[in-house]
From TrEMBL:
Sequence intervals crossing the membrane: 15-34, 83-100, 112-139
UniProt keyword annotation of Transmembrane helix present: yes
UniProt name for this protein: DUF2752 domain-containing protein
UniProt cross-references to InterPro entries, sorted A to Z: DUF2752
Record keywords, A-Z: Membrane, Transmembrane, Transmembrane helix
A Pfam cross-reference name: DUF2752
Length: 141
């Protein structure tokens, strides 16, 4: 028996965590110096456990590069990360709008844009992991 999805409306308080989380990620990428992105520990559990990059490996560094004006390096690190950043910005805008006015997330975001971005990231991530695993691609991470 499948569990039914909750149809309760999201409360204003329930919007605070996603708004803060997306905002913090974007702010951190904007203020963290690019120089700190070239060194440091690997934090991706999939990469640490399997040696293969996850679909979003390189996204943190990509966002930082992008927000510091280095689009070429951002795309080299993870070409789907700018697309994910665009989705994060769109969702952030609509969540803030929902917090302020009560207007819900538009269907074209929740039923169109979000699944499309997830599909692109998944296909890219799986393809990259297979190519890295077979030695056909050297992962820069």
């Amino acid at each position: 028996m499948a569990l039914a999805a909750s149809r309760r409306p999201v409360t204003r308080r329930g919007l605070l965590l996603p708004i803060a989380g997306i905002g913090a990620a974007l702010l951190a990428a904007a203020v963290v110096p690019v120089s700190t992105m070239s060194s440091g520990p690997t934090t991706c559990p999939m990469l640490l456990l399997t040696g293969l990059p996850c679909p979003l490996c390189g996204a943190t560094r990509s966002w930082t590069m992008l927000l510091h004006g280095n689009a070429a390096d951002a795309m080299r690190l993870n070409p789907t990360a700018p697309l994910v950043m665009l989705l994060a910005i769109v969702v952030e805008v609509f969540l803030v709008r929902q917090f302020v006015t009560g207007a819900r997330l538009p269907r074209w975001v929740s039923r169109g844009l979000f699944p499309a971005v997830v599909a692109v990231v998944a296909v890219y991530g799986i393809t990259r992991a297979v190519l890295v695993g077979t030695g056909a691609w050297v992962w820069p991470g």
